[in-house]
Structure formats: C-alpha cells, structure tokens
Amino acid sequence: MTAEPVIDEQATPAAALPATVRASLSPSRAADFKTCPLLYRFRSIDRLPERPTVEQARGTLVHAVLERLFDLPAGGRTPDAAGGLVAPQWDRLVTEQPELAGLFDPGDEAGTAEFLRSAAGLLEGYFAVEDPRRLEPAERESLISAVVDEQLLIRGYLDRLDVAPDGALRVVDYKTGGAPREAFEARALFQLKFYALVLWRTRGVVPRVLRLLYLKDAEVCDYSPDAEELLRFERTVVALWQAIEQATERQDFRPRPSRLCDWCSHQAHCPTFGGTPPPFPDRSAAADPLRDARSGPAAPGADE
Ligand code: SF4
C-alpha cells in the first residue's frame, strides 16, 4: 500500500483517528475511479481545473436554499419562503466563489434572472414531493466519516439526515441535474450506500431508507439496504481503494468510455477523444491523491 497520509483535519482531527489510518476516500472520488480511472486521475491527481457550468451552479444554489429553508420555523417553510431565499443565496455564493460570477456576462441581468427562475423551478419540484413543514432534519450538509479496514477513512457530506422517533435513519440526497437520470442513477446509489456504510459503522444502525429526490422530475427514489449488503459494499470500497493505490503506483489510469463522457470536462486530454494526458505529476506534487475535492460547486455529470 502506498497511500499518503491524507487526513482532512477539518473533518476528523488526525489525533482522533487510529494510528493505522493512512488514507481517505470520498464517494465522489471513489465513484470517479469506478466510472473511469482516467477521470479519477484528471480530477484527483492532475487536479485539472473544471470550470463551473450553469447546471452545476444551479445545483449548488438549490442545495444552499434547501439547507437554509430548514433554518426557518417549520410553519414558515413555504414555497414563497424558499423562493425568497434564491437571490440572497446566489449573492452569497458569488461572494464566496467569485468564479461563479463569470457564468454570466457582466450586465446580463436577463440571463441571471432566467437562471434564478430556473432554480426556483427546481424548488417547485422539491415542494411537489416533500412538505418541509412536516420535517425536522437531524442533520444537514453534515460531514460524516468512518474508518474501514483499519487503514481507510471514508467520508462525505450528507445533504440531509432524518431520524425517526424510533431511531430509524433516512439519508436524503437532492439531485438537481438535467442529465438523463438513468445515466447517473448507479452513481447516485453508490454515493448513498457509501453514506449508509459510514452511518452503520459509526452509529451501529443500518439506515432504513436511502432517498434520492430528483427535483427536475419531482420524483422520489427510495432504497433500503441491509447489513449484508453494506458488508459487501465495504469490501468493494476497500478493493477500490487498493485498485486506486495500485494504479497510482503504476501511473496507469485507463480511460473507460461511456455515456458519461458527454459530461466530462477533460475530453481534450483524453486519448478516447484524440487527446493526450499531461505528464504524470511527481509523487510529491501529487501528494494527497485521495483527498475529496469537494470545495466548489457539486459536479453534475458527476454527482448530480
Ligand atoms: S472523456 Fe470519458 S473516457 Fe475520457 S476521461 Fe472523461 S469519462 Fe473517461
């Protein structure tokens, strides 16, 4: 094993982790490798920049609005209240991530207004499938983590966790992308099982429901895992991590073309499309190859 110590101090103080932990893996990066090893390399090792798209920005905005919505008293969580959060949340996001401002030409007020309206449209999809006045989430946008196989820290951000009075857990993930759902459903479920595994390992409870809320289609997709399945999934995650390490050691990340290539930002560097990958970074420069890159907008086409 060649993983470097890549512990996210903000998520889990290194001092609180067993000394055996040597690497971390997020569902996004694990799913990248599963989808296409070369995509994983471009994102996690080469760190090639990906310009945010309007669709990604809309997803980030809608997630932000839904998170803030639950700050309001239950009775106030109405469609109007959600609509009223859209513009202020966009202003906040642009302040925090100035690159988002570049999505629209300066002075393109009509384009910005249309964008904000489209985000409000997704929120209508949300209200068609849930009534937030009847919900009291236990956690929102919370970072959860667990150690598996003694050496691997797995971690990720939950959109929402609901806890029933009997202690049953429901993991909820909002999907805002406009891409065909079937192209990304396996990836979305992989992500949710990842969270379920973390919760099971840390709280001793298998989540009763893993819920995908497709806001564009106003549809709910529920899945109920069991412990045996999560055990198998854990082995899959560990095997994936070992495969990532082996590929890193050999500097061998192959393209795996699929429908998802249509949403890939790196076709220009991909041999499948006639491109050439950049030289493999030297290991010191490529340190932290397993760190989650979730610092900008969520990546539709990846997680959306
Ligand atoms: S274009 Fe397709 S094959 Fe190439 S890196 Fe992206 S996802 Fe992989």
UniProtKB/TrEMBL annotation:
Protein name: Putative RecB family exonuclease
Lineage: Bacteria, Bacillati, Actinomycetota, Actinomycetes, Micromonosporales
Native organism: Micromonospora palomenae
Domain of life, per lineage: Bacteria
Keywords: ATP-binding, DNA damage, DNA repair, Exonuclease, Helicase, Hydrolase, Nuclease, Nucleotide-binding
InterPro entries linked: PDDEXK-like_dom_sf (IPR011604), PDDEXK_AddAB-type (IPR038726), Restrct_endonuc-II-like (IPR011335)
Gene Ontology molecular functions: exonuclease activity; helicase activity
SUPFAM superfamilies recorded: Restriction endonuclease-like
A Pfam family of this chain: PDDEXK_1
Entry keyword annotation includes Transit peptide: no
Spans annotated as Disordered: 274-304
Domain PD-(D/E)XK endonuclease-like: 24-271
GO biological process: DNA repair
